[in-house]
Amino acid sequence: MQLKLLSLFGGIGADIKAAKRLGVKVKTIDYVEWKENRVKAYNAMNPFRYETQDVRAWDLKPDILVHGSPCQDNSAANHNDDQGRSELLLETIRIIKEMGEWRPKFVIWENVRGALFKAKRPIFDEYLREMAALGYTNNFNIENAMDYGLPQTRERVFCVSVLGNEKFDFNKLRKRPLRPMSEFQQPEHEIEDIEKYVVNIPSMLNRLEDLASLEEIEANKSKFRYIKTITDTCNTITERPDRCPAAGVFKMTDGRYRYPTEREWWRLMDFDDEDFDLMLNVFPIKPHQRSATLYALGGNSIAVCVLEAIFEVILSGDYAMEFDEQLQLIC
């Protein structure tokens, strides 16, 4: 079976990475992403040379459609009423309507769990209503990357819409044992220029959980005030490591604390070192500086292992009978 991929809101390509992990031959049709750095990252990890493109005005005929509109507007930390980027979610509806009889059998959407919060929910509810009107049965669930082997607490909403009356069963997703943090953490002697990762900003030092009393931690528990020391797991990987709430910090052998490196950041999103090495060719890290670009590219991606589990269910069992030998996957 060959997957034909076309990426919408494609990011750095977690979708194509997940498909390759399943041993499926992948051929891309095209790739749509409007942020230049993400396009450069995607090209670096794949033998393609795409340019930035917008999602609008597409007329496509896929079997599977996967999309994930920008998540910032749905974040609990965002209090801005401008939901323009989130409304790109509804652009997918227009595209599907224009497909006519070639509507995809499956449509998959991913975003932060804040999309389900009361203030953010109307757009998602409208999306569900529109999909149902197009003949889809919707089912959504909050999935945590930790349940698929990554030692990262990363809860995301995944919605799978199936054309017809059949529901996608999230209970069929194959969970993975939690992998040890030692597989992701770099030994200190392997970290080049380690001093740039040391936590030395007073406002960050004052928020380290290890340095706070139990009374302080309990009093500020609901405010996400303190930054955990990473041992077995980390908190959600975001665009940057040096803010609170944060993914966490590692305690060094000399008693100081350091931020995760860019390589560790990508490992904790389930990308391989080979992928990250390709990134360094495009976005080299400057001496004595951390790379905001590499942190943001990794943190804004989808955890590869969760997509892999969803694709695994769709491409096997009863669902596999729905497809021709050559399957089109649009992401």
Highlighted features:
331 residues, alpha/beta, Rossmann fold, DNA Methylase, Chain A, domain 2, seven-stranded mixed sheet, 10 helices, 16% strand
Mind sketching the topology for me?
Blueprint: E1 2-8, H1 14-21, E2 25-32, H2 36-45, E3 64-67, H3 91-99, E4 106-112, H4 121-133, E5 136-144, E6 155-163, H5 202-205, H6 214-219, E7 250-251, E8 257-258, H7 262-267, H8 273-282, H9 292-299, H10 304-314, E9 326-330
Helix pairs in contact: 1-10, 2-8
Quick rundown:
It is built from 10 helices and 9 strands. It is α/β, with parallel strands linked by helices and 331 residues long.
The major β-sheet equals:
7 strands, mixed
Binned, the helix content reads 25-40%
**Separate helix tally:** 10
Taking pLDDT < 50 over at least 5 consecutive residues as the criterion, the unreliable ranges are 74-82
**Structural shape:** globular
Instruction: Give the spatial strand order of the biggest sheet.
Output: 2-1-9-3-4-6-5
Element order, helices and strands? EHEHEHEHEEHHEEHHHHE
Quote the average pLDDT.
Answer: 83
CATH level-four homologous superfamily name of the largest domain: Vaccinia Virus protein VP39
Whole-Å distance between the termini?
Answer: 17 Å
E-strand count: 9
Strand content: 15-25%
The top level CATH class name of the largest domain:
Alpha Beta
- CATH structural architecture of the largest domain: 3-Layer(aba) Sandwich
Assign the structural class, choosing from mainly alpha, mainly beta, alpha/beta, alpha+beta, or little secondary structure.
Answer: alpha/beta
What is the number of independent domains? 2
Radius of gyration: 20 Å
CATH topology of the largest domain: Rossmann fold
